[in-house]
Write a structure and sequence with these properties.
The chain is of the alpha/beta class. Helix 2 (32-38) crosses helix 4 (66-79). It contains twelve helices and eight strands. The radius of gyration is 20 Å and the shape is globular. The structure holds 3-methyl-2-oxobutanoic acid (KIV). 3-methyl-2-oxobutanoic acid (KIV) binds at residues 28, 46, 48-50, 88, 142, 185, 187, 208, 218, 220.
Length: 269
């Protein structure tokens, strides 16, 4: 017998049904507490491997281990009730073969209880996407600027600046859609190309630095909250959390130093 939760999470078919309808709202989250806030407004939450750079100070996402994704995935699932939770497959956990990808994707889903995984790559990952989806693992694809390939791409560069590069990216979008992905992230892509792809395929496109023409948008939460010293040019910063934290820590440090730190009575209300 199973106990039904009163609040039901968004499902993969519900996200897919947004195609051409109301835009999909999504953000990344890595912890239970921020995820609980994002959960009120987002259709899905991505536990992105950007956590390696944003939270753990890595230079790229290449060094992120599977266990770290699982640990943060568990925290985000615990902190949320409504949004579909998608967990990134880190570099090295899926490229080798469909079988390896299945084993690691199943591990992520079993241990975190997330609803889907995301992996990077277009045509070259189509066989793996088909293998996973045919075996019950919902896949969100990610094409255009794919940070796990930044060493090959020579950094983080907007894709499709030259029109002769468009057909390969369009072919990637078509390949992941036909292989069974339920949505695809378009990262760092010129607007006319993102708009063209969005019209060409029948799964939702989720843009990040790829214009408002997509079926939905995603941003890295810490970027839009103003927590990072550097943010990509396309990011609108909606909060000033970095300076708010700075002010709070500075005031605390001053109060400790001049012994004006609150007394026990004031602290333990
Ligand atoms: O890892 C991540 O946060 C992502 C988003 C930028 C889409 O993949």
């Amino acid at each position: 017998m199973s106990i039904q939760n009163k609040i039901r999470r968004n499902t993969v078919p519900q996200i897919r049904a947004h195609k051409g309808q109301e835009p999909i709202v999504s953000l990344t989250s890595y912890h239970a507490h921020t995820a609980a806030i994002v959960d009120k407004y987002a259709d899905f939450i991505l536990v992105g491997d950007s956590l390696g750079m944003v939270m753990h100070g890595m230079d790229s996402t290449v060094g992120v281990p599977l266990d770290l994704m699982i640990m943060h995935g568990k925290a985000v699932v615990r902190g949320t009730q409504k949004a579909l939770i998608v967990v990134d497959m880190p570099f090295g956990s899926y490229e080798e073969s469909p079988g390896v990808a299945f084993r690691n994707a199943a591990k992520i889903m079993k241990e975190t209880q997330c609803g889907a995984i995301k992996l990077e790559g277009g045509s070259r990952m189509a066989e793996t996407i088909r293998f996973l989806t045919e075996r019950g693992i919902p896949v969100m694809a990610h094409i255009g600027l794919t940070p796990q390939s930044s060493h090959i791409m020579g950094g983080f560069k907007t894709q499709g600046r030259e029109e002769d590069g468009w057909p390969a990216i369009e072919a990637d979008a078509k390949a992941v859609s036909e292989a069974g992905a339920f949505a695809v992230v378009l990262e760092g892509m010129v607007e006319p190309l993102a708009a063209k792809i969005t019209k060409q395929i029948d799964i939702p496109t989720i843009g990040i630095g790829a214009s408002a023409e997509c079926d939905g948008q995603i941003l890295v939460l810490e970027d839009m909250l103003g927590l990072n010293e550097w943010t990509p040019k396309f990011v609108k910063v909606y909060g000033e959390l970095g300076s708010a934290i700075d002010r709070a820590v500075k005031q605390y440090a001053e109060e400790v130093k001049d012994r004006s730190f609150p007394t026990e009575d004031e602290v333990y209300r």
